Amino acid sequence: AQSVTQLDSHVSVSEGTPVLLRCNYSSSYSPSLFWYVQHPNKGLQLLLKYTSAATLVKGINGFEAEFKKSETSFHLTKPSAHMSDAAEYFCVVTIINTGTASKLTFGTGTRLQVTL
Amino acid sequence: NAGVTQTPKFQVLKTGQSMTLQCAQDMNHEYMSWYRQDPGMGLRLIHYSVGAGITDQGEVPNGYNVSRSTTEDFPLRLLSAAPSQTSVYFCASSYQPSNTEAFFGQGTRLTVV
Prior knowledge:
The complex is a heterodimer. By secondary structure, chain A is mostly beta strands. Chain A has strands at residues 2-6, 10-14, 19-21, 23-27, 31-38, 44-50, 56-58, 64-68, 73-78, 87-95, 105-106, 110-115. Chains A and B meet through strand 6 and strand 10 of A and strand 4 and strand 5 of B.
């Protein structure tokens, strides 16, 4: 079984300050991990993904995430928030090649608010 | 390249009515799936398909049917709408489900009254 926990339902930062969105996962097998972003009334867009290569993953718009197996974490960070980063962010886990169709398991989401 | 196209964008149904949400993709992806998004619950998998003619249930399949007669299309049918099915529905497709990017449609906002 696999699961993902996003530790904060809402995060508020000032423009220009760092962003940290926390995600912990549980998986019986080697996981693939993703972060998706959803802007209001839009579909989901991939920010970045980890698939057992480098543990520090760089994504679009200056975001990055580090896979830490010992902590079962995949936190999303950005050095300096921009107003356009205000959105909902989803951490997603799936498992690789188990012989059956893999499925994406979504966290409950973190709403990022960016203030002036 | 249109990606994943969902129709309609908005729909209001009366309890007991049936309808079909359409989803089409033009990327030749084998894997397609339907999710519902409810506040505070993230996205939950309803049904998925690993190729034409093959479908399976996800986490919350009750009240929904799917079929996959072509690679491109994956419609979701609500058999007898209930207020509990009020939600935003997303269709997604990917080359493989496990380690490649999933492409999402813009969503269908469904209200059942």
